[in-house]
From TrEMBL:
Keywords: ATP-binding, Glycoprotein, Kinase, Membrane, Nucleotide-binding, Serine/threonine-protein kinase, Signal, Transferase, Transmembrane, Transmembrane helix. GO terms for cellular component: membrane. Residues 861-870 have a biased composition (Low complexity). It comes from Acacia crassicarpa (northern wattle). This is Protein kinase domain-containing protein.
Length: 883
C-alpha cells in the first residue's frame, strides 16, 4: 500500500513492492528537464548507498556512491554505519542501486543541500540478509525533516512474491528557504540487534504546487464530495500510493514528464471490468495535445491518449468502478485525469456523467468539454479530498463513474484517463501506517549461518512474543476497566473523560477542564432516544466528520442539533475537546450555545441549540430558500459581527475563531445570526510584547488571511479578513472562489476590488438585491468591507469598528427608506423571488446566447459553486442535505 507501484499491493499479501517490468525501465534517462520551480533551479540526487564513485546503470544514467561524495553529507554520529554488498538471489534485480546497502544499528542521516521548493523523495530497499545483519532484524523508522515517513519498518514483512524483495516508497516534501533536506534512519532501540538500512535515495525537484494547494488556484478540492474545502498546505507531506494509466499500459519513469514517476495499468483494480473497455486515441504523428498554460507535467501524453469507458452511446446505466486498498486512518488526495479525444464529441453536453468516490457524489455534472471550453485534446484534471471510515487497518477506496441520470447528452457513457491517489500526513506529521511488530513467524537465519545467530533470533522471538502478549493483555484489562468503571482520565492533551457511575445526573460534567454548571453530559442512551437511534430522517446536515441530526431532549420538549463524529475516527479528537472547552465557557446572544456532549465508548457527540434556518450561506446562493432583502441580510451581518466582537474583547481571554465563513454563521427561527464551530479556535496572544500567535495554517481557502497564510502569524485581524469575505458573499450572492467563469471573476475579492477601483461596484451586487439596496448604503458598506481585506493586517479595522460600520450602513438604509416612504423590504423580496423562479426555469429549459448559438441545457454542478470550507474540524455543519 505504501509504495507508489500499484502491483506492490496484493490483496492477498498487502506487499508494497514493485513489479520487475517497472524496474527494467526505471532509469532510462541520462539527462532530463523538469519545469522550473519557484527558486528557478532544480535538484536531482541519485544516491547509490554503500557504493563509491559514479556508477552508471544499464540505462546509462549515473548514480553517485555515498562513499567519499562531496555533493551531500552522510551524518553518522556513532561512526557505526557499514557499506555492504547485497547478497542478491535474483538475477533480474538491478545491481544499481540494489547491489549495495548502507546499514547501521544506530541512527544515521543523509543531508542534501537543496533549493527551496517541493521535492520527490524516493527510498529504494532490497530486503535481504547482509552478512551478520539478518533480514528479520531490520526494524527502523525514517524521518525527512519533521515528517515521519516510515515507523518500525521491516522489509521482511512485505516479502513473498518473485519481485517482492524490491520495495520503493515515494514521498512529496516541501523545503523552505534556508533548509537542507535531512533524511534520518533510526533503528528501534527497544529490540536487540535492530538495524536500519537503505540501498538507494533519489531526490527530484517538482513544479511548485504540482500536488500542494496553491492559494491562488480556483479549482477547489472538496472533502468527501461535500462543501468542505481541504487544503494540502506546504507543511504537510504526501506519499504516493497509486498512480494509474487508465485503459493503457505501464508507463516507465523514463517516459514520464521529467520527474521519473511510474504509471501502472488499471486492470487489477477494476471491479466492473465486464462492462468496461479500454479505448485509445487515433493520434496521427502530427496530432498533439494542447496544454493550457504549458502545464504538460501533470501527466505524460501516453496517459491522455488512453482511457476507459463501456461503449459509445450505451443506453444501459452501467458504471465503471475501481477499488484501491488504503490505510483507513489517513486522508487522501485523489486526482483524476481527463482528455476528450473522440471526434464525435463536439460540444459541452455531448458526454456528461457523474463521479462518486466512496459512494459520495463528488461531481454531479462531469463534462470534460465544459471544463476545456469546448476544446478536444486538452488535458484537464480534478482533485478531491477523501476521508476513510476508521474501522480496521485497511479499507477499499472506490472510484465510480456512471452516466448522468437526467442529462440529455448525446453519448451515454463515461471517460477517465488517469488516477493518482496520495496519502496526506496527519496532524503529527506522520505518514506511517500501522505496521505489525517483528514476529516469530518471520523467516529466520539460514541453516548455514552460525548457530549463535540462530539462538539469538530465538531469544529475540521469545522476548518479543512475551512482550506482545503482556501488552495485549494490559490493553484488554484497561479497555474493560474503562468500559465498566468509566473513570475520567485526561492524558496527552486529549480529553478522554468517560461516563461515571452517576452520569445519569444530567448536569454532571466530566473532565477537570470543563465547568460543571455550564456543560451537560449526555449518555449514549439519551442521545439515541433523542434521535430515534440516529434515524436518517432526522439528518439536517453533513459535517466534515459526520452527520448532524435534529433531536429532542427533556422528554421531547427541547429541539437540539446533535453532531456525531464518525465512529472510530481518530481525526478530530483535538477539535472535539477544543469545542467543548471553548463553548462551555462562552455565552452570548450571537454565539451558538453548546448544551452538552457525549463521550461514551467510541462515540463523540456535541449537542447544540437548534438553529432552525440553517447556515447564512443557505440564504445567499445555491439553495431553494426564498431570497432575502438587503436589510435582512445586513441585520444578520451585524449580529455575526457582534458575536465575533465578543470573542475578541468580551470573553475572559480574547479568542481568535480562525474559521470564519458563511457556513459557520447559523440562523435561528427569529432570523438571529450566531457564530458557530470553534474546533479551530485559539486563545489570542497574551502579554504586552506579543502581537500574534505562531501556528500552522488552518482554515478555508477563499477566506484565509493572506498574511496568516504566508507568515503563519495568527491575529484577530485574520478573523477580520475572513469576515470581510463573508460580507462580500452577502453583497454579491456568490462564493469566494468560483469555477467555470472568466478569470477576472473567479476570485470574489479580486473581482470586487477591481470593480471598486473602476467605480462600477454596482456590477458586483447580487441581482436579487437591486431593488432593495440604496446607493448610499452600498457605498458605505463596500468601502468598509474593502478595508477589511487590505493585505496589511495592521491597517484593517477592529471588529468593534466593523460593528459600528454596519450600524451606520443600516441607518443609511433605513433613513433612505423612510425618506422615500417605500416598503422596500416587502416589494424587493416579492420581485426578487419572481426573478429567481424565472431564472431557474430558464436554466431547466435551455436558452439561446446573445450570439444566437444554443447554450448547453446543463448547468454546472452546484458543488462547484459552493463556498469553500474546511474539512478539518469536527463541528462543521456544511451544506444541509435535508432540512
Amino acid at each position: 500500500m505504501e509504495s507508489f507501484s500499484q502491483n506492490s499491493i496484493s490483496k492477498k499479501t498487502n506487499s508494497p513492492t514493485i513489479p520487475i517490468s517497472f524496474l527494467l525501465f526505471f532509469f532510462f534517462h541520462l539527462l532530463f528537464t523538469i519545469p522550473v520551480t519557484s527558486s528557478g533551479s532544480v535538484d536531482h540526487f541519485a544516491v547509490d548507498c554503500g557504493n563509491s564513485g559514479n556508477n552508471q546503470a544499464y540505462d546509462q544514467r549515473n548514480w553517485i556512491g555515498d562513499i567519499g561524495s562531496t555533493l551531500f553529507s552522510l551524518i553518522d554520529p556513532a561512526n557505526n554505519t557499514q557499506h555492504i554488498k547485497a547478497e542478491a538471489s535474483k538475477s533480474n534485480v538491478p545491481l544499481i542501486p540494489y547491489g549495495t546497502a548502507r546499514l547501521s544499528r544506530s541512527e544515521f542521516s543523509y543531508s542534501f543541500p537543496v533549493n527551496d521548493s517541493q521535492k520527490f523523495v524516493r527510498l529504494f530497499f532490497y530486503q535481504s540478509s547482509y552478512g551478520d545483519f539478518l533480514h528479520s532484524d531490520s526494524l527502523f523508522s525514517v524521518k525527512a525533516g519533521n515528517h515521519t515517513l516510515l515507523k518500525d519498518f521491516n522489509a521482511s514483512l512485505y516479502a513473498g512474491g518473485a519481485s517482492d524483495d524490491i520495495i520503493l516508497r515515494e514521498y512529496c516534501i516541501n523545503i523552505d528557504a534556508g533548509q537542507r533536506l535531512n533524511i534520518t534512519f533510526m533503528p528501534n532501540q527497544a529490540y536487540p540487534n535492530a538495524y536500519a538500512f537503505i540501498n538507494g535515495i533519489e531526490v527530484v525537484s517538482m513544479p511548485t504546487f504540482l500536488y500542494y494547494t496553491n492559494p491562488d488556484d480556483q479549482n477547489a478540492m472538496m472533502l468527501d464530495g461535500r462543501t468542505q474545502q481541504f487544503a494540502v498546505n506546504s507543511d504537510s507531506a504526501l506519499e504516493t500510493v497509486y498512480r494509474i494509466n487508465v485503459g493503457g499500459s505501464q508507463i516507465p519513469p523514463a517516459k514520464d514528464t521529467g520527474m521519473f514517476r511510474y504509471w501502472d495499468l488499471d486492470n487489477a483494480y477494476l471491479k466492473s471490468r465486464e462492462r468496461s473497455q479500454s479505448i485509445s486515441a487515433a493520434f496521427g504523428v502530427s496530432v498533439n495535445l494542447t496544454y493550457r498554460d504549458d502545464q504538460n507535467y501533470f501527466a505524460p501524453d501516453e496517459v491522455y491518449k488512453t482511457a476507459r469507458n463501456y461503449g459509445m452511446n450505451e443506453k444501459s446505466k452501467f458504471n465503471v468502478t475501481w477499488e484501491f486498498e488504503v490505510d483507513s486512518v489517513f486522508h487522501y488526495m485523489v486526482r483524476l485525469h481527463f482528455c476528450e479525444f473522440d471526434e464525435h464529441i463536439e460540444n459541452a453536453g455531448d458526454r456528461v456523467f457523474q463521479i462518486f468516490i466512496n459512494d459520495a457524489l463528488v461531481e454531479s455534472v462531469a463534462d470534460v468539454m465544459l471544463w476545456t471550453q469546448n476544446q478536444r485534446l486538452v488535458p484537464v484534471h480534478r482533485d478531491y479530498a477523501v476521508s476513510m471510515p476508521n474501522s480496521g487497518s485497511f479499507k477499499n477506496l472506490s472510484i465510480k463513474l456512471q452516466p448522468h441520470p437526467t442529462a440529455r447528452s448525446s453519448y451515454r457513457d463515461v471517460l477517465l484517463n488517469g488516477i493518482e491517489i496520495l496519502k496526506i500526513s496527519d496532524y503529527n506529521d506522520n505518514l506511517a501506517g500501522p505496521n505489525p511488530p517483528p514476529s516469530p513467524a518471520l523467516p529466520t537465519t539460514p541453516s548455514s549461518e552460525p548457530s549463535k545467530n540462530r539462538n539469538k533470533t530465538k531469544v529475540i522471538s521469545i522476548i518479543v512474543g512475551a512482550t506482545s502478549g503482556f501488552i495485549v493483555l494490559s490493553l484488554i484489562v484497561l479497555l474493560i476497566y474503562r468500559r465498566f468503571i468509566r473513570v475520567p482520565v485526561k492524558e496527552g492533551g486529549s480529553w478522554w473523560g468517560q461516563k461515571s457511575a452517576d452520569s445519569s445526573k444530567k448536569n454532571k460534567s466530566h473532565g477537570s477542564s470543563l465547568p460543571s454548571d455550564l456543560c451537560r453530559y449526555f449518555s449514549i442512551d439519551e442521545i439515541r432516544a433523542a434521535t430515534n437511534n440516529f434515524d436518517d430522517i432526522f439528518i439536517v446536515g453533513v459535517g466534515g466528520f459526520g452527520n448532524v441530526y435534529k433531536g429532542y431532549i427533556d422528554n421531547g420538549t427541547v429541539p437540539v442539533a446533535i453532531k456525531r463524529l464518525k465512529q472510530g475516527s481518530q481525526q478530530g479528537l483535538h477539535e472535539f475537546q477544543t469545542e467543548i472547552e471553548m463553548l462551555s465557557q462562552l455565552r452570548h446572544n450571537h454565539l451558538v450555545s453548546l448544551i452538552g456532549y457525549c463521550n461514551d465508548g467510541n462515540e463523540m457527540i456535541l449537542v447544540y441549540e437548534f438553529m432552525a434556518r440553517g447556515t447564512l450561506r443557505d440564504h445567499l446562493y445555491d439553495s431553494d430558500n426564498p431570497p432575502l432583502s438587503w436589510k435582512k441580510r445586513l441585520g444578520m451581518c451585524l449580529g455575526a459581527a457582534r458575536g465575533l466582537h465578543y470573542l475578541h474583547t468580551g470573553a475572559k481571554h480574547n479568542i481568535i475563531h480562525r474559521d470564519v465563513k458563511s457556513t459557520n454563521i447559523l440562523i435561528d427561527e427569529k432570523w438571529v445570526a450566531k457564530v458557530s464551530d470553534f474546533g479551530l479556535s485559539k486563545v489570542g496572544p497574551t502579554g504586552i510584547s506579543k502581537s500574534h500567535i505562531s501556528t500552522v495554517v488552518k482554515g478555508s481557502l477563499g477566506y484565509l488571511d493572506p498574511e496568516y497564510y504566508k507568515r503563519q502569524r495568527l491575529t484577530e485581524k485574520s478573523d477580520v479578513y475572513s469576515f470581510g469575505v463573508v460580507l462580500l458573499e452577502v453583497l454579491c450572492g456568490r462564493p469566494p472562489l468560483k469555477r467555470n467563469v472568466e478569470k477576472q471573476k473567479s476570485s470574489l475579492v479580486e473581482w470586487v476590488r477591481k470593480c471598486h477601483r473602476e467605480g462600477v461596484i454596482h456590477q458586483t451586487v447580487d441581482p436579487l438585491l437591486i431593488e432593495s439596496i440604496t446607493p448610499e448604503c452600498l457605498k458605505a458598506f463596500s468601502d468598509m468591507v474593502l478595508t477589511c481585506l487590505v493585505e496589511d493586517g495592521n491597517e484593517r479595522p477592529s471588529m468593534n469598528d466593523i460593528v459600528w460600520g454596519l450600524e451606520f450602513a443600516m441607518q443609511l438604509q433605513e433613513g433612505k427608506e423612510e425618506e422615500e416612504g417605500l416598503d422596500v423590504e416587502g416589494k424587493s423580496e416579492e420581485s426578487a423571488l419572481i426573478r429567481k423562479v424565472t431564472r431557474v426555469e430558464e436554466s431547466r429549459e435551455g436558452f439561446t446566447s446573445s450570439d444566437g448559438s444554443k447554450a448547453s441545457r446543463l448547468t454546472t454542478s452546484s458543488s462547484e459553486n459552493q463556498s469553500l470550507s474546511s474539512g478539518v474540524i469536527f463541528s462543521e455543519l456544511g451544506h444541509p442535505t435535508v432540512r
